[in-house]
């Protein structure tokens, strides 16, 4: 599997975020980077590609997802949509191909439904290993939310059903129980696990 960083960076120029990213890429010898919410126009992609030391880059159609990768890999766009970018990935020394989908989902259920439908179309194209990662703006169970109104499982129904249809497995992670908060204090604080990595069993 390609060594990867996925980061909802919320602004590549915010508080030295990009400098931290460069250090992480160099320290872990990362070959593929996906950034969500860069908050900079995608016409600047080449500039950031050079800073990271990568040879290739692409943004999705609305510029909310940026990807960078090194010369050892060939990435081909399979689907480019407002809420996702799907690429086929092949290493120069390996014939096998696998697929990655970077997700930046809308918050409203009716808009997310368009994402699930788009992924359903992609599923029919992909034959082999497939990973999805990013901000799904959905939780799968009540324990993935803390604070605010209790989570109603029906809000997760579409997400859960589609992931089951795709035979996706949650890779889990190490760290904080939640990946997002509203940055409020005490009783007004809401935290949720909106970001995740999923993969099929192939």
Model description:
The protein has 202 residues and is an alpha+beta fold. Helices cover 22% and strands 31% of the residues. The chain is built from 4 helices and 13 strands. The chain has helices spanning 17-28, 45-52, 109-123, 157-165; strands at 4-8, 32-36, 56-59, 65-69, 73-81, 84-91, 97-104, 130-135, 145-146, 169-170, 180-181, 191-192, 195-199.
Compute the separation of the termini in Å: 13 Å
Largest sheet: 6 strands, mixed
Quote the CATH topology of the largest domain: Deoxyribonuclease I, Chain A
Low-confidence stretches: none
Mean pLDDT across the residues is 92
InterPro entries: Endo/exonu/phosph_ase_sf
Write the layout of secondary structure elements.
Blueprint: E1 4-8, H1 17-28, E2 32-36, H2 45-52, E3 56-59, E4 65-69, E5 73-81, E6 84-91, E7 97-104, H3 109-123, E8 130-135, E9 145-146, H4 157-165, E10 169-170, E11 180-181, E12 191-192, E13 195-199
Parallel strand pairs: 1-2, 7-8
Antiparallel strand pairs: 2-4, 3-4, 5-6, 6-7, 8-13, 9-12, 10-13, 11-12
In short:
By secondary structure, this protein is α+β, with helices and mostly antiparallel strands. It has helices spanning 17-28, 45-52, 109-123, 157-165; strands spanning 4-8, 32-36, 56-59, 65-69, 73-81, 84-91, 97-104, 130-135, 145-146, 169-170, 180-181, 191-192, 195-199.
Features of this protein?
2 domains, 202 residues, alpha+beta, Deoxyribonuclease I, Chain A, six-stranded mixed sheet, four-stranded mixed sheet, Translation Initiation Factor IF3
